[in-house]
Every structure is written in C-alpha cells, then in structure tokens.
Amino acid sequence: MSVRKALMVLYRVCWLVFVVLVLIGVFAEPLLPFGLTFVPAVVAVAIGFALSRSGPKEALKDRPAVEVDPPVTGRWSALNSPADKVPSHGTHVYGQTYAIDIVAEPETADGESPARPPFRLFWPVVRRNRDFPAFGAPLLAVADATVVRASDGRRDHLSRNSLPALAYLMLIEGGVRDMLGARAIIGNHVILDLGEGTYAVYAHVQRGSLQVRAGDTVRAGQPIARVGNSGNTTEPHLHFHLMDGPDPDSARGIPFTWRGVGVPANGEKFTVGTDVSGAR
C-alpha cells in the first residue's frame, strides 16, 4: 500500500471514529472528555488538507499533455477546467488535478440550445435527470485501451442545483460520500488503461448504462457507457481526467488535451463531430 493510499484510509477512519464518538456522546455516556472527542476530526482535517495540496510528482509536472480523443460527440461546454486553474477542482485528491467537467449544450433545428435548468435559490429544490440534456448522452473510449474498472450499481440521484439541495450536498451528502471512499465520490464509473502509465477516468456514469466490463479491450471512439448523475454531483455531467494509476486514492493527475478540441476553458462551448477517433 502506498503512503498516499494509507493516508486516505486513515483520513476516513478518523472521520468515522469522530462520528461514532459524537453519536455515543449524544445517545449515551461520552467515552472521552468533550475536547478529546474532536481529536480524530482535527487529524482528519489535517490529513485532508495535506493530500489536497499534494500535487503531481516532479516527473509528472514536466510531462507533456497526453493527447486523446474527446469522450463525447455533439455540442458541449466546459466547467471546472484545468485551462483556467490547476488543480481545476481545488484539490489534487483522487488524481483529479487536471480534471474537467462538461455539460451538454445541444443545438435544435433553429440553431438554439435548449436551456439547461438554471440554478435556483429555493424552488424547485431538485429536478429530474431527464430535464438536463447531458443525461443519457453516449460516452466514448478516448483511445485504444483496456478496461480496468467498470461500475454502474449506484443510483442516479436528483439534481442539487438549488440553495437547499446544494447545502445538503456540501454539508451532509458530500461528507458521507467522502467517508465511504472514492467510489462513492465518483459514482458509477469506467477507468481505462491507455498504456504507458496513463489511465482515463469517466465519473458519474448512468446506472445500468455500461457497455463494457473489467478486462475488455476497446477501440477509440467505441461507446462504453452513458452520462449519468451518480456520486458527488449537482447535475448530470461528465467528469473526466487522466491519472498515473488505476486507483484514484493513490494516483496523481496527468494533463490531457482532446484531439481537435484542446482543453476548453470554463464556459467555452465546443463541438465534436461523430467521427472523433484518430486515423488508424
């Protein structure tokens, strides 16, 4: 077990111990003095902060961006892009230093994009997944690869794009998922081994949409799953990143660029044709 993996395990154990101590203190006789109850939480926060600031090793920092095919077709826009800041999601944890989120912005016959449901302060609190154009969109292999992980047993929850729902996600749901581990955070997912120590992560995949399983070989452009809303998400979207190992708990991020697209910046719309695979 790597040091990074061991620290991730210790991080979750500390939070779990803290929660147990608090519950015992509420419903029974406290096991520890009030001040000592918070020691596991302090340790967990310290570990979490250290891991979130621990970026790629020097060898990876100097590594050129890996060019791969786009994982989608159609018209999309970028959120939380590494083109604007690194780490793009404010943390290096789970190998997501150079991660990107994308949402569908399809054009209608009149050339307009159907409106993605906007963030609301209070109402509606949640929305159905089919209200978002990204939900169910096909996901494609970004290169010839081997599937090392494929999971789609988690439910697609409702949106979290209102103030009450976002507060629930940030204060309760996200914390619980964090204690449960990387799989609870990224939800249903596919991880591809692209070779030469590079792995591609597709997170928040739609439940029941997998078209591959661990051990399968895939060709660039091959459909592998569909966009969902599982895991730690506010709305249906694809979270994509490259990393240097198959385990998000211990992997470090690797920069990427999409062939013909590059790395779209936050809010930038881009279109990918149906023939996205590099010529072979």
From TrEMBL:
Transmembrane region(s): 9-28, 34-51
GO molecular function, one term: hydrolase activity
Domain M23ase beta-sheet core, chain residue ranges per copy: 183-244
Record-given protein name: M23 family metallopeptidase
SUPFAM superfamilies from the UniProt entry: Duplicated hybrid motif (SSF51261)
EC number per UniProt: 3.4.-.-
PANTHER family: MUREIN HYDROLASE ACTIVATOR ENVC, PEPTIDASE-RELATED
Classification via CDD domains: M23_peptidase
Keywords: Hydrolase, Membrane, Transmembrane, Transmembrane helix
